[in-house]
């Protein structure tokens, strides 16, 4: 394989890895926020003597309902970024191959 293409592939893999790392960090942050909010909610219910009431479960379900769309959004953005990078790299590789082919044809004509 052409060394230029190897470098491009390595860059793409690095970028895809960075997107995965960013996604993981965002999901961890969301999860930490969700856990903190659930703990604060439980503390509030406990302070009122209602720790084991259905109100706590309902409040935690509301927290979860706000959390899940955010998780989906983070995952969707990461997937879209990965597809975009992959398509751009493939387009670049195709252009390089076309240029190399044209250069080879020109070199064959000049002999």
How do you describe this structure in short?
91% of the residues lie in helices and 0% in strands. With 111 residues, the chain is an all-alpha fold.
Describe the model:
The chain has 111 residues and is mostly helical. It has one domain. The protein contains two helices and no strands. The protein has helices spanning 3-47, 54-109. Helix 1 packs antiparallel against helix 2 (54-109). The longest helix has 56 residues, at 54-109.
Keywords for this structure?
mainly alpha, 0% strand
Q: Can you summarize the main beta sheet?
A: none
| Radius of gyration based on Cα positions | 25 Å
How much of the residues is beta strand, in percent? under 5%
Count every helix, treating DSSP H or I runs of 4 or more residues as helices. Answer: 2
Helix content: over 70%
Work out the count of structural domains. 1
What structural class do the secondary elements suggest?
mainly alpha
Low-confidence region ranges = none
* Mean of residue pLDDT values: 92
Q: Which descriptor suits the 3D outline?
A: rod-shaped
Q: Number of DSSP strands?
A: 0
What's the topology here?
Elements: H1 3-47, H2 54-109
Helix pairs in contact: 1-2
